[in-house]
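--- STAGE predict ---
source: upstream dedup step, 1 unique chain passed
mode: sequence only
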Amino acid sequence: MSISRISFIALLFAIIPGCKPPSVDEPKLPTVEMRLGTRTFQLEIAANDADRATGLMNRDSMAVDRGMIFVFADEAPRSFWMKNTRIPLDIVYVNATGEVVDIKQMAPFDLRSKPSNKPAKYAIELNKGLAAASSLKIGDQLTIPEAAKEPK
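--- STAGE serialize ---
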């Protein structure tokens, strides 16, 4: 190995430890602010097939004021599971008019589906327990922000 190649590798090892990877709490998708019950959340918008398929997989944590809204083209029965998802979550199913039609809790890595009891156009994931802590309940009417109304 030449001296210049060794110097380059040494330089890389000096630079890389100083680089900080993005925090798991930093949004990876566009976000929208949304009121859910008594609290306001910053929700990442999963509005295409790839983003909906990835969801919150492989994240170690999520800030208490964050979540994700899954946006679908139509209202239909929905079902989610927790493959490669490390964070315990609440899932809030919402129909096309903004009505909360179901709320369920999901355990990390649970491969069993958690279906909605009624058709939904949106699914919102929050840290486990935050739906109840925000006084969110089935039948509540939500205002879906314009940026999250339709898939991309």
